[in-house]
């Protein structure tokens, strides 16, 4: 017996990944606030945090594309 996930189940999992990425994104934003509030901001740390933000943005975009793909399997476009 083969068990597979439905597109709806896959979307739910992807949404969990997006939520996790959004938590990370917010956490990094807070770290940036703290880093910039320092009397002597560490520019390398700030650069690293900005790189992490860019990476998360790309990941969220990729996950959203995967949701779009799964959604297309649920309700195919009628021409």
Provide the descriptors you would attach to this structure in a database record.
79 residues; mainly alpha; 2 helices; elongated
How many E-type strands?
0
Report the C-alpha radius of gyration, rounded: 18 Å
Category from helices, strands and their pairing? mainly alpha
Strand content: under 5%
Task: Please characterize this protein's 3D structure.
By secondary structure, this protein is mainly α. The protein has one domain (14-72). It contains two helices and no strands. It has helices spanning 7-37, 43-74. The longest helix is centred in the C-terminal third of the chain and has 32 residues, at 43-74.
Strand and helix map with partners:
Blueprint: H1 7-37, H2 43-74
Short description:
With 79 residues, the protein is mainly α.
